[in-house]
Amino acid sequence: VRHTSDHVEFDASVHGGSDFSPERVLQGKLAVSAMQVALRGLPERTRDIFVLRVFEEQKTADVAHALGISTRAVEVHYAKALALLAAAVRDHRG
Q: Are 67 and 61 in contact (CB under 8 A)?
């Protein structure tokens, strides 16, 4: 209703199309599912550290302080999580 005159109808020749085929969308969804399964399969402390670092965007030192461990231990757990998640995606792609 607001600013109806400002709206234009979508035209792929003007606005560009999408190269996301249904197969590509499905592959993406399956990759996300594989990552979720892998994330749930991580040891609890490793998963907690990954979540704090990635999803809550906390710094290594802050995570270490919150969990009462060294920053090196946080780095080791984080690297382990990254490696396992990367392997899950790699294995998913076959």
A: no
- Alpha-carbon 73 to chain mean position: 22
Q: Can you tell me which residue has the tokens 């690297």?
A: 79
- Altogether, the residues listed in the chain come to a count of 94
d(CA 56, CA 24) in angstroms, rounded, equals 29
Q: What average pLDDT does the structure give for the chain?
A: 89
Q: Per-residue confidence at 4, pLDDT binned at 50, 70, 90?
A: confident
Residue located via tokens 């030192």: 61
Predicted TM-score (pTM) of the model is 0.71
* Contact status, residue 42 vs residue 50, Cβ threshold 8 Å: yes
